[in-house]
Protein backbone atom coordinates (compact mmCIF):
# COMPACT_ATOMS: atom_id res chain seq x y z
CA UNK A 1 0.00 0.00 0.00
CA UNK A 2 1.86 3.05 -1.28
CA UNK A 3 0.01 5.38 1.06
CA UNK A 4 1.53 3.46 3.97
CA UNK A 5 5.17 3.63 2.86
CA UNK A 6 5.95 6.28 5.48
CA UNK A 7 5.37 3.63 8.13
CA UNK A 8 8.77 2.17 7.20
CA UNK A 9 10.64 5.31 8.32
CA UNK A 10 12.57 4.15 11.42
CA UNK A 11 11.21 5.21 14.78
CA UNK A 12 13.63 7.74 16.38
CA UNK A 13 14.11 5.45 19.39
CA UNK A 14 14.88 2.48 17.16
CA UNK A 15 17.16 4.22 14.64
CA UNK A 16 20.36 4.08 16.77
CA UNK A 17 20.01 0.28 17.07
CA UNK A 18 19.05 -0.49 13.48
CA UNK A 19 22.49 -0.90 11.91
CA UNK A 20 23.70 -3.11 14.75
CA UNK A 21 20.73 -5.45 14.48
CA UNK A 22 21.16 -5.80 10.73
CA UNK A 23 24.88 -6.52 11.16
CA UNK A 24 24.21 -9.11 13.88
CA UNK A 25 21.56 -10.98 11.90
CA UNK A 26 22.51 -14.64 11.27
CA UNK A 27 23.78 -15.15 7.75
CA UNK A 28 22.90 -18.85 7.57
CA UNK A 29 19.46 -20.40 7.59
CA UNK A 30 20.13 -23.34 9.88
CA UNK A 31 17.26 -24.57 12.05
CA UNK A 32 19.32 -25.57 15.07
CA UNK A 33 21.41 -22.40 15.00
CA UNK A 34 18.31 -20.26 14.85
CA UNK A 35 16.67 -22.23 17.63
CA UNK A 36 19.71 -21.66 19.85
CA UNK A 37 19.54 -17.93 19.19
CA UNK A 38 15.80 -17.97 19.90
CA UNK A 39 16.33 -19.61 23.28
CA UNK A 40 18.73 -16.83 24.20
CA UNK A 41 16.27 -14.18 23.04
CA UNK A 42 13.49 -15.84 25.04
CA UNK A 43 15.52 -15.66 28.24
CA UNK A 44 16.30 -11.99 27.64
CA UNK A 45 12.63 -11.26 27.02
CA UNK A 46 11.59 -13.06 30.20
CA UNK A 47 14.07 -11.06 32.25
CA UNK A 48 12.69 -7.84 30.77
CA UNK A 49 9.18 -8.75 31.91
CA UNK A 50 10.19 -10.29 35.26
CA UNK A 51 9.69 -7.05 37.27
CA UNK A 52 6.01 -7.02 36.26
CA UNK A 53 5.30 -10.57 37.45
CA UNK A 54 2.40 -10.93 39.87
CA UNK A 55 2.81 -12.93 43.07
CA UNK A 56 2.51 -16.71 42.76
CA UNK A 57 -0.50 -16.58 45.09
CA UNK A 58 -2.44 -14.50 42.54
CA UNK A 59 -2.78 -17.28 39.96
CA UNK A 60 -2.67 -21.06 39.54
CA UNK A 61 -0.20 -22.47 37.03
CA UNK A 62 -0.21 -26.06 35.86
CA UNK A 63 1.48 -27.88 32.98
CA UNK A 64 -0.81 -30.48 31.41
CA UNK A 65 -0.65 -32.95 28.53
CA UNK A 66 -3.25 -32.76 25.77
CA UNK A 67 -3.81 -35.72 23.48
CA UNK A 68 -3.52 -35.07 19.75
CA UNK A 69 -3.74 -37.28 16.67
CA UNK A 70 -6.32 -39.62 18.24
CA UNK A 71 -3.97 -40.78 20.94
CA UNK A 72 -0.90 -40.98 18.75
CA UNK A 73 0.87 -38.13 20.53
CA UNK A 74 0.41 -35.46 23.18
CA UNK A 75 1.53 -31.88 23.60
CA UNK A 76 2.11 -29.69 26.62
CA UNK A 77 -0.19 -26.83 27.51
CA UNK A 78 0.45 -24.44 30.38
CA UNK A 79 -2.74 -23.27 32.06
CA UNK A 80 -3.07 -20.08 34.06
CA UNK A 81 -6.13 -19.37 36.21
CA UNK A 82 -6.65 -16.25 38.35
CA UNK A 83 -6.76 -16.96 42.07
CA UNK A 84 -9.95 -16.01 43.87
CA UNK A 85 -9.57 -12.67 45.59
CA UNK A 86 -12.64 -12.98 47.85
CA UNK A 87 -12.59 -16.63 48.86
CA UNK A 88 -15.43 -17.39 46.46
CA UNK A 89 -14.83 -19.69 43.48
CA UNK A 90 -15.26 -17.47 40.42
CA UNK A 91 -15.37 -18.16 36.70
CA UNK A 92 -13.47 -16.24 34.05
CA UNK A 93 -13.24 -15.68 30.30
CA UNK A 94 -10.81 -17.96 28.45
CA UNK A 95 -7.98 -17.19 26.03
CA UNK A 96 -5.96 -19.80 24.13
CA UNK A 97 -2.49 -18.44 23.26
CA UNK A 98 -0.19 -19.58 20.42
CA UNK A 99 3.46 -18.49 20.52
CA UNK A 100 5.57 -17.13 17.66
CA UNK A 101 8.86 -18.30 16.18
CA UNK A 102 8.37 -18.75 12.44
CA UNK A 103 6.71 -22.18 12.96
CA UNK A 104 10.20 -23.59 13.66
CA UNK A 105 11.10 -22.17 17.08
CA UNK A 106 9.62 -21.24 20.42
CA UNK A 107 7.63 -22.86 23.20
CA UNK A 108 5.46 -21.92 26.18
CA UNK A 109 8.37 -20.10 27.82
CA UNK A 110 8.43 -17.29 25.25
CA UNK A 111 5.35 -15.42 26.50
CA UNK A 112 5.06 -17.07 29.89
CA UNK A 113 5.73 -14.01 32.04
CA UNK A 114 3.56 -11.69 29.97
CA UNK A 115 0.69 -14.18 30.10
CA UNK A 116 0.93 -14.54 33.88
CA UNK A 117 0.58 -10.77 34.16
CA UNK A 118 -2.32 -10.72 31.68
CA UNK A 119 -4.08 -13.50 33.59
CA UNK A 120 -4.00 -11.58 36.87
CA UNK A 121 -4.55 -8.05 35.57
CA UNK A 122 -7.48 -8.90 33.29
CA UNK A 123 -8.90 -11.80 35.33
CA UNK A 124 -8.82 -14.23 32.43
CA UNK A 125 -7.90 -17.91 32.27
CA UNK A 126 -5.24 -18.71 29.68
CA UNK A 127 -4.09 -21.86 27.89
CA UNK A 128 -0.55 -21.47 26.49
CA UNK A 129 0.04 -24.09 23.77
CA UNK A 130 3.33 -25.87 23.02
CA UNK A 131 2.49 -27.06 19.50
CA UNK A 132 5.00 -29.19 17.60
CA UNK A 133 7.45 -27.40 15.32
CA UNK A 134 8.40 -27.57 11.65
CA UNK A 135 10.32 -28.84 9.76
CA UNK A 136 10.24 -32.07 11.79
CA UNK A 137 6.47 -31.69 12.02
CA UNK A 138 5.36 -29.94 8.81
CA UNK A 139 1.99 -28.41 8.02
CA UNK A 140 -0.64 -29.10 9.22
CA UNK A 141 0.83 -30.62 12.41
CA UNK A 142 1.33 -27.41 14.40
CA UNK A 143 -2.04 -26.11 13.26
CA UNK A 144 -3.79 -29.35 14.16
CA UNK A 145 -2.05 -29.41 17.56
CA UNK A 146 -3.27 -25.88 18.25
CA UNK A 147 -6.80 -26.75 17.17
CA UNK A 148 -6.80 -29.84 19.39
CA UNK A 149 -5.70 -27.65 22.30
CA UNK A 150 -8.54 -25.22 21.58
CA UNK A 151 -11.06 -28.07 21.64
CA UNK A 152 -9.52 -29.45 24.82
CA UNK A 153 -9.87 -26.03 26.45
CA UNK A 154 -13.52 -25.81 25.44
CA UNK A 155 -14.27 -29.29 26.77
CA UNK A 156 -12.39 -28.62 30.02
CA UNK A 157 -13.64 -25.13 30.77
CA UNK A 158 -14.64 -26.19 34.28
CA UNK A 159 -11.11 -27.40 34.99
CA UNK A 160 -9.91 -23.92 34.04
CA UNK A 161 -12.58 -22.06 36.06
CA UNK A 162 -13.72 -20.68 32.72
CA UNK A 163 -17.14 -19.63 31.51
CA UNK A 164 -17.02 -19.40 27.71
CA UNK A 165 -20.09 -17.16 27.67
CA UNK A 166 -17.91 -14.52 29.35
CA UNK A 167 -15.44 -14.65 26.45
CA UNK A 168 -13.60 -17.24 24.37
CA UNK A 169 -10.57 -15.85 22.51
CA UNK A 170 -8.00 -17.41 20.18
CA UNK A 171 -4.79 -15.38 20.14
CA UNK A 172 -1.24 -15.55 18.89
CA UNK A 173 1.84 -13.67 17.80
CA UNK A 174 3.60 -13.98 14.43
CA UNK A 175 3.39 -17.69 13.48
CA UNK A 176 0.93 -18.06 16.35
CA UNK A 177 -1.13 -15.24 14.84
CA UNK A 178 -1.14 -17.13 11.54
CA UNK A 179 -2.49 -20.22 13.31
CA UNK A 180 -5.04 -18.12 15.18
CA UNK A 181 -6.37 -16.58 11.95
CA UNK A 182 -6.75 -20.01 10.38
CA UNK A 183 -8.31 -21.52 13.50
CA UNK A 184 -10.91 -18.74 13.58
CA UNK A 185 -12.07 -19.94 10.15
CA UNK A 186 -11.97 -23.62 11.12
CA UNK A 187 -13.96 -23.04 14.28
CA UNK A 188 -16.55 -20.95 12.41
CA UNK A 189 -17.32 -23.95 10.19
CA UNK A 190 -17.07 -26.69 12.85
CA UNK A 191 -20.25 -28.02 14.48
CA UNK A 192 -18.18 -28.65 17.63
CA UNK A 193 -18.16 -24.90 18.29
CA UNK A 194 -21.79 -24.22 17.38
CA UNK A 195 -22.87 -23.86 21.01
CA UNK A 196 -19.55 -22.48 22.26
CA UNK A 197 -18.31 -20.12 19.54
CA UNK A 198 -15.16 -18.09 19.64
CA UNK A 199 -15.96 -14.52 20.65
CA UNK A 200 -12.70 -12.91 19.58
CA UNK A 201 -9.34 -13.32 17.88
CA UNK A 202 -6.05 -11.52 18.55
CA UNK A 203 -3.57 -11.46 15.67
CA UNK A 204 -0.22 -9.87 16.51
CA UNK A 205 2.11 -9.25 13.51
CA UNK A 206 0.68 -12.28 11.67
CA UNK A 207 1.99 -13.72 8.39
CA UNK A 208 -1.16 -14.16 6.33
CA UNK A 209 -0.09 -15.09 2.81
CA UNK A 210 2.84 -17.08 1.48
CA UNK A 211 4.75 -14.73 -0.88
CA UNK A 212 4.63 -17.50 -3.51
CA UNK A 213 0.83 -17.38 -3.51
CA UNK A 214 0.01 -13.66 -3.65
CA UNK A 215 -2.91 -13.25 -6.09
CA UNK A 216 -2.39 -10.77 -8.91
CA UNK A 217 -5.21 -8.62 -7.57
CA UNK A 218 -3.22 -8.05 -4.36
CA UNK A 219 0.28 -7.62 -5.80
CA UNK A 220 0.00 -3.84 -6.06
CA UNK A 221 -1.29 -3.68 -2.49
CA UNK A 222 1.34 -5.74 -0.68
CA UNK A 223 4.22 -3.35 -1.24
CA UNK A 224 5.81 -3.93 2.16
CA UNK A 225 7.02 -7.37 1.04
CA UNK A 226 9.49 -5.62 -1.24
CA UNK A 227 9.77 -2.29 0.53
CA UNK A 228 10.90 -3.90 3.78
CA UNK A 229 12.56 -6.96 2.24
CA UNK A 230 15.77 -6.41 4.21
CA UNK A 231 14.06 -5.27 7.38
CA UNK A 232 15.84 -5.92 10.67
CA UNK A 233 14.71 -8.98 12.68
CA UNK A 234 12.50 -10.41 9.91
CA UNK A 235 13.55 -10.11 6.27
CA UNK A 236 11.68 -11.26 3.20
CA UNK A 237 14.33 -13.97 2.77
CA UNK A 238 13.51 -15.18 6.29
CA UNK A 239 9.81 -15.26 5.47
CA UNK A 240 10.41 -17.46 2.41
CA UNK A 241 12.62 -19.76 4.50
CA UNK A 242 10.05 -20.06 7.28
CA UNK A 243 7.24 -20.89 4.85
CA UNK A 244 9.47 -23.48 3.18
CA UNK A 245 10.08 -25.08 6.57
CA UNK A 246 6.35 -25.04 7.33
CA UNK A 247 5.47 -26.84 4.11
CA UNK A 248 2.05 -27.24 2.60
CA UNK A 249 0.56 -25.78 -0.55
CA UNK A 250 1.19 -22.00 -0.56
CA UNK A 251 -2.25 -21.41 -2.13
CA UNK A 252 -4.08 -23.41 0.55
CA UNK A 253 -6.01 -20.97 2.77
CA UNK A 254 -4.85 -22.93 5.82
CA UNK A 255 -1.31 -21.90 4.80
CA UNK A 256 -2.32 -18.45 3.53
CA UNK A 257 -5.48 -17.44 5.45
CA UNK A 258 -5.72 -14.17 3.50
CA UNK A 259 -6.93 -16.38 0.62
CA UNK A 260 -10.08 -17.75 2.25
CA UNK A 261 -12.99 -17.16 -0.12
CA UNK A 262 -15.08 -15.79 2.75
CA UNK A 263 -14.26 -14.12 6.05
CA UNK A 264 -17.89 -13.63 6.99
CA UNK A 265 -19.06 -14.86 10.35
CA UNK A 266 -15.65 -14.63 12.02
CA UNK A 267 -15.36 -13.25 15.56
CA UNK A 268 -14.18 -9.66 16.10
CA UNK A 269 -10.44 -9.23 15.61
CA UNK A 270 -7.71 -7.28 17.35
CA UNK A 271 -4.76 -6.84 14.98
CA UNK A 272 -1.34 -5.35 15.80
CA UNK A 273 1.04 -4.43 12.96
CA UNK A 274 4.63 -3.16 12.82
CA UNK A 275 5.49 -0.52 10.23
CA UNK A 276 9.05 -1.69 9.50
CA UNK A 277 7.98 -5.25 8.74
CA UNK A 278 7.54 -7.08 5.40
CA UNK A 279 4.26 -8.39 6.85
CA UNK A 280 2.83 -4.91 7.34
CA UNK A 281 0.62 -4.55 4.30
CA UNK A 282 -0.88 -8.04 4.43
CA UNK A 283 -1.99 -7.27 7.98
CA UNK A 284 -3.58 -4.03 6.86
CA UNK A 285 -5.18 -5.72 3.86
CA UNK A 286 -6.57 -8.44 6.12
CA UNK A 287 -8.10 -5.77 8.35
CA UNK A 288 -9.82 -4.33 5.27
CA UNK A 289 -11.07 -7.71 4.08
CA UNK A 290 -12.50 -8.50 7.51
CA UNK A 291 -14.31 -5.18 7.71
CA UNK A 292 -15.70 -5.67 4.20
CA UNK A 293 -17.07 -9.00 5.48
CA UNK A 294 -18.77 -7.16 8.38
CA UNK A 295 -16.27 -8.44 10.94
CA UNK A 296 -15.47 -5.88 13.61
CA UNK A 297 -11.78 -5.03 13.92
CA UNK A 298 -9.59 -2.99 16.23
CA UNK A 299 -6.26 -2.51 14.44
CA UNK A 300 -3.18 -0.70 15.69
CA UNK A 301 -0.03 0.13 13.70
CA UNK A 302 3.38 0.98 15.19
CA UNK A 303 5.37 3.09 12.70
CA UNK A 304 9.08 2.55 12.18
CA UNK A 305 9.59 -0.50 14.39
CA UNK A 306 10.37 -4.06 13.23
CA UNK A 307 8.80 -7.44 13.80
CA UNK A 308 8.82 -8.45 17.53
CA UNK A 309 10.46 -5.17 18.57
CA UNK A 310 8.55 -5.23 21.87
CA UNK A 311 10.65 -8.14 23.13
CA UNK A 312 14.03 -6.47 22.60
CA UNK A 313 13.00 -2.92 23.39
CA UNK A 314 10.22 -3.01 26.02
CA UNK A 315 11.29 0.44 27.23
CA UNK A 316 10.41 2.10 23.90
CA UNK A 317 7.37 4.36 23.89
CA UNK A 318 5.97 2.26 21.02
CA UNK A 319 6.40 -0.94 23.07
CA UNK A 320 4.50 0.54 25.99
CA UNK A 321 1.76 1.60 23.59
CA UNK A 322 1.74 -1.95 22.18
CA UNK A 323 1.12 -3.40 25.64
CA UNK A 324 -1.62 -0.87 26.36
CA UNK A 325 -3.30 -1.63 23.03
CA UNK A 326 -3.07 -5.39 23.66
CA UNK A 327 -4.82 -5.11 27.02
CA UNK A 328 -7.36 -2.64 25.68
CA UNK A 329 -8.02 -5.05 22.81
CA UNK A 330 -8.75 -7.92 25.18
CA UNK A 331 -11.13 -5.71 27.16
CA UNK A 332 -12.81 -4.62 23.92
CA UNK A 333 -13.39 -8.24 22.93
CA UNK A 334 -14.67 -9.15 26.39
CA UNK A 335 -17.07 -6.20 26.25
CA UNK A 336 -18.58 -7.59 23.05
CA UNK A 337 -16.46 -5.45 20.68
CA UNK A 338 -18.54 -2.40 21.50
TrEMBL record:
GO terms for molecular function: hydrolase activity. The keyword Hydrolase applies. Keywords: Hydrolase. Pfam families: Abhydrolase_3. Residues 95-310 form the Alpha/beta hydrolase fold-3 domain. InterPro entries: AB_hydrolase_3, AB_hydrolase_fold, GDXG_lipolytic_enzyme. It comes from the Eukaryota. This is Abhydrolase-3 domain-containing protein. It comes from Favolaschia claudopus. The lineage of its organism: Eukaryota, Fungi, Dikarya, Basidiomycota, Agaricomycotina.
Amino acid sequence: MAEHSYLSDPDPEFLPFMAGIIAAAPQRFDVEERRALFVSATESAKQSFAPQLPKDTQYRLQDRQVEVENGGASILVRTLVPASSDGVENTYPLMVWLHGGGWTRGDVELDDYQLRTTCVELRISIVNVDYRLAPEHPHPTGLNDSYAALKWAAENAGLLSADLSKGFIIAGLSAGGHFAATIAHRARDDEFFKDRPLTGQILQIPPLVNPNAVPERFESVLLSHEQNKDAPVLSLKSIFWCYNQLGGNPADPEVSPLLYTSHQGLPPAVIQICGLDPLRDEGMLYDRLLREASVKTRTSVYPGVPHTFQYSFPHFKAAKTWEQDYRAGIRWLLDGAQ
